[in-house]
Amino acid sequence: MPHSAPNRTETRVDVVIVGAGFAGMYMLHRVRGLGLSARVFEAASGVGGTWYWNRYPGARCDVESMQYSYSFSPELQQEWQWSELFASQPEILRYANHVADRLDLKRDIQFDTRVTDARFDEATHRWEIATDRGDRVSAQYCVMATGCLSTARMPDFPGLASFKGKTYHTGHWPHEGVDLSGQRVGVIGTGSSAIQAIPVMAEQARELVVFQRTPNYSIPSRNGPMTAEYEGSWKSEYEERRAKARTMRGGILYDINEKSALEVAEDERRREYEARWAAGGTAFMAAFSDLAVNKQSNDTAAEFVRERIREIVKDADTAELLAAKDYPIGTKRICVDTHYFETYNRENVSLVDVRKAPIAEITPDGLRTTEAEYQLDTLVFATGFDAMTGSVLKVDIRGRDGQSLRDSWEAGPRTYLGLMTAGFPNLFLITGPGSPSVLSNMIVSIEQHVDWVTDCIEHLGARGLDCIEATVESQDAWVAHVNEVAYGTLYPSANSWYMGANIPGKPRVFMPYIGGVGAYRQKCDEIAANGYTGFELTQPARETAEAAD
Ligand code: FAD
Ligand code: NAP
After folding, report:
1. I want to staple 66 with a disulfide (CB 3.0 to 4.6 A). Which of 234, 300, 406, 526 is the partner?
2. 454/308 same-domain check
3. From the CB of 446, is ligand 1 less than 6 Å away?
4. How far from chain centre, in Å, is Cα 441?
5. How many distinct structural domains can be found in the chain?
6. Secondary structure of 42-81 in the HEC alphabet?
7. pLDDT confidence of 548, banded at 50, 70, 90?
8. Is there a domain that residue 266 lies in?
């Protein structure tokens, strides 16, 4: 459906929203519902965020389609039909566009425009926002819906510019697609993106060389076509199931075994893992209640997965290289695949251990490790993202006294509830660091944050207030709580992007809140119900000044 361009002459709005992924789109819808004016800026040429950018072969979600979708509109969730159990990127992008058109969102979204600066004006209590297209907009509230995994990371290998072939990052895949047939392709990285892309690229390429630094645990997805029966079972109980999912730890409905892996006999434990491996997907990690907190329990699950890899991969050395051993399963995000390990049985696929012999340089004809040289036509970087803080900190954000967010987060992000940060009034973060975000079905977390922010804005408006800010004390207490909960688990023992460990020089801080989506929601709701405890709510700046006179 054609959409009209946003009104670019409007320089004062109630709310500026940065980003038009699922978070920004829903935020716009809710803000309009309050009768407020809003302008969305989006760097891409379309909606969908993650699903706009990540078009690599094999890209799909690993949360079931029936759950990885908006729940706020009964009509929307009833009318949309998913074709597979786990939707592919093109289908999710079609869904995002369907929602945008259905809710007529695009008329308030300015595409191909990156927000570069945001400054809080203490005299007016407004944010002054600037873009790379020369826009200057003033807004009472600024909502950063910039995404947790939206700043692709390219390692700085020497010689990269000299490469004669083509290079691609999975997070910036060309829209017209890439024909890999007849090519010698090198893939750097073996995270979720690579694990999805490798089996598909192996079918096209003449030769595929995978450069692996750290192996990952991966569970088969058992994806398949959506059946009318399965879809019907969800749609007939959608409201109840969604309501239940919101209370769950990961915002996903699945069967959680409340037993410890150590309290059951060996054969029962094995049966549980086998059933979950056969069923597929991330529910494997719910096989026992203590896999994330007890190393001995975790070892039983990790060893089960390593055994499966040794069974699937015919070459014993390759199997051993693919079997993760030096961190607990689930402490780096668990991967979900379709025939990933099987792909290493193909004649045209080989695995190179770049932990043992690191990549020394990219050469004009390929890549050289400290041990060998590889001739390649195409290089695929599946090297991940500057997660959780990357996109927020790319914007030069200045709060009270001109204080910069980059400076204030120099030692790692500090927020209250992952929603706001002290010194930056009226700046909301959707799925910010300190919230469960990336440890959840993200659409559930996005909806929860957007609903909370909308209620908050409404609360302020109804009371003639125009400013909300997290206090330093509440923020300190929240950061301490986030850390305490994280360090009670095995998560911090892995060099993961949750810890900022994938970015050289990034502070090592466990960024997401691991206390669970359901419990976190309850906390946020209580805080709001009690009049926004831990936040300072103030009157319009002029009235405050008059009251002081
Ligand atoms: P995004 O979708 O990242 O959108 C943010 C948008 O903000 C982007 O379009 C970006 O261009 C824009 N932006 C950023 N900075 C600026 C700026 N300064 N100015 C203008 N625009 C800006 N989550 C799950 O729950 N399940 C999954 O299976 C799953 N699979 C994933 C697969 C991949 C390949 C990746 C990368 C992530 C996956 N995720 C998954 C996480 C996914 O990011 C979220 O589910 C969700 O799509 C995030 O939506 P968002 O709107 O918060 O952010
Ligand atoms: P990632 O998990 O961070 O993986 C990046 C990979 O690149 C890692 O294997 C990393 O190795 C490697 N790497 C980085 N720099 C390197 C270097 N200099 N030399 C050699 N190897 C290097 O990134 P991702 O795969 O894009 O996934 C990011 C997140 O996006 C996921 O965790 C998930 O949350 C989401 N995602 C989800 C899905 C899905 O299944 N739905 C799909 C894709 C992405 P090290 O581990 O050694 O650092």
Report:
1. 234
2. no
3. yes
4. 9
5. 2
6. CCCCCCCCHHHHCCCCCCECCCCCCCCCCCCCHHHHHHCC
7. low
8. no
